[in-house]
Amino acid sequence: MNKTALFGVQEDGEPYINKIGSYAVIYDNRDSRIALIKNDKGNYFLPGGGLENDESLEDCIKRECREEAGLEVNIQKFIGSAKQYFKSPNDHKYYLNEGHFYMCEQLSKQIPLEENNTLLWVKPSVAVKILVHDHHKWAISQLLR
What we know:
Blueprint: E1 5-7, E2 16-28, E3 33-38, E4 44-45, E5 48-50, H1 57-69, E6 71-87, E7 94-109, E8 118-122, H2 124-130, H3 134-144
Parallel strand pairs: 1-6, 2-7
Antiparallel strand pairs: 2-3, 2-5, 3-4, 3-8, 6-7
């Protein structure tokens, strides 16, 4: 039985909102870089986000990559799942994010649907230093082992 990796610290007495998300590690073999999203606050994340309605993990990745980065992707393999406790600086609420991570390849690029994000391609060693969430860093390390 696989144990889910867990990151962050659960604050005693705080109510946590469980959030299930799906994230893409898009690795470009030609120049050994990974796609990251930089938001308008200057924070870095893997492309992806929370599930909507009855959406599957795979459909969520495809939608989020299209919205955030303008990328059409092909899901190649499941990397793993990890959870992270964190307090959002936006709404100051506490979250437990259950992230499901997939290796993906870029099929095509369009104009992103969301205007406040920037797509960047960085070396994995840089990505693990600048990503906001530890479970995103973990996914990259799992892929590269």
